[in-house]
Every structure is written in C-alpha cells, then in structure tokens.
Amino acid sequence: MKALVGEHIETLKPYVPGKPIEELERELGIEGSIKLASNENPLGPSPKATEAARALLEKGHIYPDGAAHRLRAAVAKFHGVSPDEVITGNGSNEVLTIAVRTFCTADDEAVVSQYSFAAYPIICQAQGMTIHRAPMKEPLTFDLKAMAETITPKTKIVFVANPNNPTGTYVPADELRWFLGEVPDDVIVVVDEAYHEYVQAEDYASAETMRDVHERLIICRTFSKCYGLAGIRAGYGIAPAALIDRMNRVREPFNVNLLAQDAAAAALDDLAFVERSVAINEEGRGILEEGLSALADSGVSWIPSQTNFLLVKVPVEGVKVYDALLRKGVIVRPMAGYGLGDYVRISIGTPDEVRRCLNSLYEVLPTLVQREEA
C-alpha cells in the first residue's frame, strides 16, 4: 500500500497556537485570567475597523470582493505603490504561504534564521523543500552575514523577520540594505514586518525603502498586531507587479473575507489608534522591564525588544514558569518549541495586566527555584 503522505508531511511538526482563555479556564477551574501569550493588542481592535465591520454584518450572504480592490487601493495609497504591487491575505501568514507555493518546488531550498518565526520552516517543509538554518548572533539577533553565507545555488527563498518573533530583536537599516545587495538576483527575499509599527530604534528602516536594492523582494505586513485585528485575519504583501501577478494565480479566491477587507482598510486610516497602541506598549514595556530588573539576582534577564513582547530568560525550565503562572490566571508562552527551553515570551498588555503578571511571577519563581535546587 502506498504511503498516506510523503515523508516531508509525516515528519512535519505543526505550529501550536496558544489555547483560548475560555478553554484554559475551563480546564483549570479558574476565572478572570489574562492572556499575555499571543502578542495581541490589549486595546482591542481599531474603533474605525469595528465600525466598518459592523456595517457589513447584514451582507454576510454576499461573497467578498475576490480581488480586494478597496483594501489593495488603501494599502497602495498608504505605501505610495501601485495596487498591482499589493497582494492581500488571510493574515500575513497566508501571504508567506502563497509566496512559497508560487515560487518554490521540492527541488528548491530555503534559508531561515535560528530562533525565528516557526511558520517559515513549516511552510517550506510542507512544500517538500530543504531548509537551512543560519545561526544567530548575540543577543539573539539575525546574523545576516551568516545567512548570506548559507545561501547555495539551490536556494530559492530567504526569510527575514524584522523585528523578529520570538526574540523581539531587529536588523539595523544598513545591515539589511547590505544583505539585500548580497543576495543573488534570482533568490526571493521575504521581509516580514509584522511588528513594524512598534519599532522605536532610530537605525531601523522598513524594507520598503530598499526596493531598489533587490528586485525579488516581498515585504509582508499584518493587521493582527498594532491594528488589533488578529481575530479578523487580514494582512498584505508588497512586491513587484510581476511577482504579485504570479502569486495571485495561486491565491485562493475570496481569501480575505467581507468584514476583514473593510475593517482592515478602515484600520489603516486610524492613525490615532496606532499612536495609542504604541504609547501603551511603551508604557507597559517600561513597567515590565523595571519589574523584571528586581528579579535579576534570581537569574532573570530579557532580550531588548522592538516589539510588543519580551523574551524572558528564567532560572528554571520555561514550561514550569508557564504552568505556575497559568494557575495564577496569567497566560504566557513557553519557548521550548523554539529550542529556547529556559525562556518564556511575555506579551505586553495594559499596565495593570503587566503588573499582575509581575506580581504573579514574584510569587511563583522563588518556589520554583527552591524545587530546582532541592
């Protein structure tokens, strides 16, 4: 009998999202939990997006615009590009998938970075590709020189998350520009800028300012983070029209639903909400970093972040910290799945949520350390 699936599917480890609050509360018999595990916007969705989506509820029986004309036009205007250079997706994750399905075959290779977004190797392995992982440099930052050296004649696509999930680190503009110039012309570079809006570093720049350096460049953005539309699912990619044309041949029809298209277009225009989201993130980051500093003698440290989360190193297994906090009603993300077993990722919530997380950490960590030393 023939195998049900190929070896590349049989050995594929799927992406494991965090459980919903409702499910965890039901399992543990607790109430009033806070979720600081999935890098969601603690302010909720953009009010303009909510209003736009609500206005369409009575049109749910009508298929959405298969080409997402309004959303693509809004994105094109926002970035100063042509609508023909924009593709929309069911979150930016779908844009990543479309890119691999369009341009890559099982004979091709991909280059990713160690400790980068888990979706990249998953998508590539599902296509049957060979994946090469370049090492990072301290403090858990993309080593673009190492990535450039990892490229082979069979490399078809390279992924750079800037800033990166789960480390929160970023690549300075001059390093990214150098890298784009080093990558062979026939290799596609995907720069994933899901956390772009949160960046405060002065030496950062979006890859959209570097489109003249490398032609086969795809820049991905999402509405899931700063715009607060994670549950509605909308994202987009910007690339030369020739690349977008090929990707649209693979893209599923009606891939961005009716509500998501108008909500995302409205959110893109809600600059005041973005400013509030960034401001509360900076406030929460300050509180979290100050609170974690009090645990330095206990072996706690963190990676400086340009996102809406911190990757925190703990003195015991991260999953033990996750489990102990969970029973306090605080949900964070253990990082063992990324090969970072002594880390947890903590999303930056509201100031009150951050303080609750810290207080819970203060309560559980001494006991966990004592058990480790016993």
Number of helices: 13
* CATH top-level class of the largest domain: Alpha Beta
Number of strands: 15
The span between the termini is 53 Å
**Total domain units:** 2
The CATH level-2 architecture of the largest domain is identified as 3-Layer(aba) Sandwich
Strand count, sense and closure of the main sheet? 7 strands, mixed
Give the low-pLDDT segments.
Answer: none
Residues in helices, as a percent range: 25-40%
Task: Please tell me about this protein's structure.
The structure is a single chain. With 374 residues, this protein is of the alpha/beta class. It has two domains: 47-270, Aspartate Aminotransferase, domain 2; 272-373, Aspartate Aminotransferase, domain 1 (Alpha-Beta Complex), CATH 3.90.1150. It has 13 helices and 15 strands. The chain has helices at 7-10, 21-28, 47-54, 69-79, 92-103, 119-126, 144-150, 173-182, 241-250, 258-268, 271-293, 318-326, 351-373; strands spanning 34-35, 86-89, 109-113, 130-134, 136-137, 141-142, 155-161, 188-192, 217-222, 235-238, 301-303, 309-313, 330-331, 333-334, 343-347. The strands form four sheets. Strands 2-10-9-8-7-3-4 form a seven-stranded mixed β-sheet, with helices on both faces. It is globular and about 60 Å long. The relative contact order is 0.16.
